[in-house]
Amino acid sequence: MSWCMQLVKRANYKATVRDPGTLGVLTMTENKFVFSPNVHTSTAAKPALDVEFKQITRLKNTKEGGAGPALGPPWLRLSEKDKTYIFEFASFRDLHVCREFAANALAKRGEAAIPTRDKFCTAEIMHRMKLLQESSELHKLHMQYVMSGVLTEAEFWAARDKFGDVDSRPKPKQRVGFRNSMIMDTKPMTDGRTNTVTFSLTAEIKHQIFALKPAVQQAFLALVPHKTMEKNFWTKYFRAEYLRITGNAAAAEAEAADDEELAMFLKEDELLAREARRKLRRVDPTLDMEADQGDDYTHLPDHGIFFRDEVYSRRSTLSQDLNRQGAVVLQGRSIVEVDESGVQERFGRIARTTEMEDLQEPHHLHVAQLLCMKDPGDYFDTQQANNAVKTEEAYGSLRQSISKIKSIGLGNSTVAPEIALTIFNATSF
Amino acid sequence: MASAPSKLYADDVSLLMVLLDTNPFFWSSSSLPFSVFLSHVLTFLNSILLLNQLNQVVVIATGYNSCSYIYDSSTSTNQGSDNGRMPARCVNLLQKLEEFVIKDEQLIKEGLREGIASSLLSGSLSMALCYIQRVFRSGPLHPQPRILCLQGSSDGSEQYVAIMNAIFSAQRSMVPIDSCYMGSSNSAFLQQASYITGGVYLKPQQPNGLFQYLSTVFATDLHSRAFLQLPKSLGVDFRASCFCHKKTIDMGYICSVCLSIFCKHHKKCSTCGSVFGQAQSDVNSTSNKKRKTPET
Amino acid sequence: MPQVRIIAKNFMDMVAALPAMKLDKLYENAFICEAILRSLPPLAKKYVLQMLCIEVPVTAKSMEEWVLPDGVSKHRVAIDRLIQLRIFTETVDRKRETTYTLNPIFQTNLKKLLLYGVVLPREPMPSNVTVRLPSSEDLEAFALGQWECFLLQLINSSQIERPSNISSSMMKIFQRGLLSQRDKEAPRLTESGFQFLLMDTNAQLWYIIREYISNSEERGVDSADLISFLLELSFHVTGEAYNINTLTEVQKNTIKDLADLGLVKLQQGRKDSWFIPTRLATNLSVSLTDSSSRKQGFVVVETNFRLYAYSTSKLHCEILRLFSRVEYQLPNLIVGAITKESLYSAFENGITADQAILSFSYCTFIYFHFGSSLSRRFFNFQYAQINECTFHIISFLQQNAHPRVAERVPSVPENVTDQIRLWETDLNRVEMTPAYHYDGFPSRDLFEGASDFARGYNALLWEDPEDSKKMSLVVKAENHVHMREYLSRQRQ
Asked: What is the CATH number of domain B14-225?
């Protein structure tokens, strides 16, 4: 493999569970992970971590869904023989990305590590150069202090970090897109001579599969590397795909009965179904006559939207595949990843040439608060705070009320005569 | 000498469509417990059915994730003898309501509608209107329909267009929408609904006397309303939501062709496709945009 | 306008006429409270409901505040009715302020109904005892059959096959007002009798029941008990069997009469006997027609005034004969024609009836002779009235329209209904006003002064032409007092 992946996430590092933690940036590469705290204060300074994946023996993380906000932010725990590293993330998405990355790295740890220190440094230098080019002010300062020898290069950059709580490596706000090619059906190749079918799988395809089929991603996170090896996982996946393409329902069922992992792939994608139902609820009732002009779907067998369960029990139709593909392409990639350092440089260039406001990080975050439009919800949703109430509790109390009436009857519905009279007099002006 | 056969149907025979808000988030924070609210409402429904043998009551639950018919006095036979604790119809209704709440809760597991605590009022209004249309088409002999919204949760601005459509179709078919709002502030949607359709909007000052409000104001049949002065609300919040971002606005842009509302200038109306012309300068664009001024 | 409704739609007037003691006793029964509440005018119902939780007197002023100018009369009617039925008690306190209180017994009973529901007056008998209950169709057929038989007997038709067990004295009571018998002539239907036959079954039932109750005291039965039993009966479930032994002696006698009318069906088991309420009984507490209880129609009227009635009923034939010329009578079809003559005879029925029943107060002319001599002369004004026959005939045809034509609007061709109305107005060319006739004025000045005075009240109906020497004028009766005052002033 000629490329090296690197993942940068903001995280809170804790040595133990009790530890309040240090905010900083977690950088993962194929072989190791580095954590650099945001602020270097002399007293509380924790040395920046630099641990190789080779040493890591166990990997644990919070499960999504079961945990409510009470359990705190999602965390990832990497354990050595005698030491643990706990990283808390802002969101589950960050967690999953890191977890997947770490799992991948752990899976590969047997392979020889390629020294990447140099590359890291090159990347760092590239980044600094870019920053200098972007900001003439910074460039001036750099000239003033470093070139004149007042500060060392390292001191200068460390001091700069204090100014703003910025990533050592800025995330471009624009996300990397997907190629707009259909990979829903990854086409197998047969060599014609032997009875084997080959699917080619690259990292790109992997991500695309994850994006298109969230259920597969979930399964991957759950199974790899504890229960099954990555290679095994993908073999199973493509086996399921192959059965599906060939439409060999009987064979698929037979195999699914034996192998529950395989069965999982053959099942409908519950996540997508749920998403679709949710979207359907939010269909904008506004009429868009222009968009509908000339549309005539009546000749198609399933032109209407019918989100009955039967639709999901069948295989998803081509139109659904197309829609999903389109949605994913439009959504873009949820993962910030850098395939090559060259790409990074290219982004820098793009960012410089297109000075569009909404694509840029705000330069002066600390100077002024952003002016926001007043939340429209304030007009309407005066009871926003209610959302804090747990849904189970809320529904529970509703059901309790109903059974309360069932048991005691309507006895408490009488209005006290005094209240009744005051109301009567009040309503008649 | 009126010879219309509908004369045989007494003037005060009513069809009351009750939209019952079952939003759990509202009721868990409300000062009036849901059980008290519900028992007042049930007593009220009993009294409506007591007034005339031909009166009909239909209850639709306005849930957080779904809506459903939970009671229809025309189909449920009241044969099941009353157990002496409560009329048989209430037992049936509570049973259906409980099933509905369980179903509604299951749906929530598929994901919260972020940051919105409103109920699906647009859905239940539409269901009520559909039911009324069916009654209208059943023949010349039908009870006088009206809708009563017993709403507590706040308005969902994203439902603006749907709710307004429902209101206008109610207005067209001359069905008044009464609203009894139990929330803390006023509901702009229901104020508008009642104002446009000629119904009554009321926010009880003493929620624990709900039955008194219901029986004094909302039990009045349409025939008697011609002779009585029912409470009028003093002001109506006429604010609209824009079609583009569903924000509540009191000033905005209106398409001069189809009267769609937008919060900012667009080149083209997204509803009817009318081109608004170039908006290079303010001077030029003033001819294309109109200010929606609050009406009161 | 002499518009007198002989036939009351329900018997709440009778209930209202009961003495206070008996009324209070009636309200102890929750069913009666329910039935009476349902019989009230819409506004009165609302007033009861809003007073349900209030236990102190409410001022009349606070209730009048709600009433729009258009609704004052309705409000009055509602309040009067409530007071009449002793549901509201009116008190005037020292500050001369009127207040109303809801009858506490009535209030408690209604509250109980709302909160705890209805407890049936008696439990139906278990089905293992009553093995052969009639199906609902059989029961319906039984009820209608009994009722029709009763009606035929009532109008003294020659078509009766089997006379019911109703005693002839009882039958006489029912016939009172419906039939008139002048010396030696065959009894004729009066106008009310005519209207009665054209009414729907429910309204007919009310009339008969009303007569039955008003007659009860003569038979030694307390009318309040009877009312309470009849209302209670209406809350039983149609088609269920109820043991006769749960009834009192008086009620047992009553139920036999009711069986003759078709309100209940009696059955005898091995040990017990029981009664089965029919739809007629359970509809008693409904003051107006229930659309679902309406029988299927059978009449087709063509634009050429021909009338086809698909019916085997003798009663239907009798009714049609009242206003149309029956041409053929086949086993299941009656063919007739609506003609001017047939309608005139129908109207005539109505008119004779009116003359018989209405007092002369409307058509009395009193001639006030000015001066010493008092002479009475009768103008032979043809008496006419806006009668209800047309309304009843048309609505009978509409309500009983055959399903094939019932869907059409209008179900009876417009040219036919219009023609019926035109024929009727042919008879009503004259309008009548009670009036006084003044003549014998001593001077022309006085005569002209009186004439101008009457004109000032817009009361002058007729005066002698200028050149006539008679000097007489006709003034509306309601202004007679003013005229008299004026004339006596002039005399002095």
From this structure: 3.40.50.410
C46 neighbourhood in chain A, CB within 8 Å: none
Over residues B248-286, the pLDDT tens digits come to 788 888 888 888 888 888 888 887 888 887 655 444 444
- Contact between C49 and B215 using a beta-carbon 8 Å cutoff: yes
Give the closest residue to C285 by CA, choosing from C235, C212, C226. Answer: C235
Task: Mean pLDDT check: name the lowest of A293-302, A401-410, B27-36, C17-26.
Answer: A293-302
Cβ of C116 and B82 within 8 Å? yes
Q: In angstroms, rounded to a whole number, what is the distance separating the alpha carbons of residues C417 and A112? A: 105
CA torsion sign, C306 to C311 to C315 to C317? Answer: positive
- Judge: A428–C56 Cβ closer than 8 Å, yes or no: no
Fold adopted by C11-116? Arc Repressor Mutant, subunit A (1.10.10)
Distance CA B248, CA C360 (A): 74
Question: What are the tens digits of pLDDT across the range C384-425?
Answer: 334 566 777 887 888 788 888 877 778 888 888 888 888 877
What one-character-per-residue DSSP string does C72-94 give?
HHHHHHHHHHHHHTTSEEEEE-T
CA-nearest of C269, C211, C281 to C243 is: C269
Ramachandran area for residue C315 (φ above 0: left; ψ -120 to 50: alpha; else beta): alpha
> Which partners does chain B have (≥3 C-beta pairs < 8 Å)?
A, C
DSSP string, C419-456: HHHHHHHHH-------EEEEE--S-HHHHHHHHHHHHH
Closest CA to A32 of A117, A156, A97: A117
The token pair at B246 is 């569903």
**CB-based contact (8 Å) between A248 and chain B?**
no
Neighbours of chain A (3+ CB pairs under 8 A): B, C
The two three-digit tokens of residue A123, written as one number: 């990347």
Question: CB-CB: which of A376, A395, A410 is closest to B105?
Answer: A395
Segment of A35-39, A162-166, A362-366 carrying the highest mean pLDDT = A35-39
CA atoms of C35 and C12, how far apart (whole Å): 10
Q: Does residue C356 have a pLDDT over 50?
A: no
Question: What are the residues whose beta carbons fall under 8 Å from the beta carbon of C39, sequence distance 6 or more?
Answer: C10, C12, C285, C287
Domain limits, CATH 3.40.50.410, in chain B: 14-225
Q: Is the backbone peptide bond immediately before A20 cis, with ω within 30 degrees of 0?
A: no
pTM strictly above 0.90? no
A13-20, long-range: CB < 8 A, 24+ apart: A13/A37, A13/A46, A13/A49, A13/A85, A13/A86, A13/A87, A14/A86, A14/A87, A14/A88, A15/A46, A15/A83, A15/A84, A15/A85, A15/A86, A16/A84, A16/A86, A17/A86, A19/A86
Q: In what order do the strands lie in the sheet with C264-268?
A: C242-243, C273-277, C264-268
Residue B69 banded pLDDT, cuts 50, 70, 90: very high
Neighbouring C-beta atoms of residue B291, cutoff 10 Å = 9
Which chain C residues are closer than 8 Å to A409 by Cβ?
Answer: 115-116
Can you give the residue ranges of every domain in chain C? 11-116, 136-288, 299-361+384-427, 435-491
How much is the ipTM here? 0.82
Answer yes or no: CATH 2.30.42.10 is held by domain C435-491.
no
Kindly compute the dihedral angle of the four CA atoms of residues A323, A327, A329, A335, in this order, to the nearest 10 degrees: -140
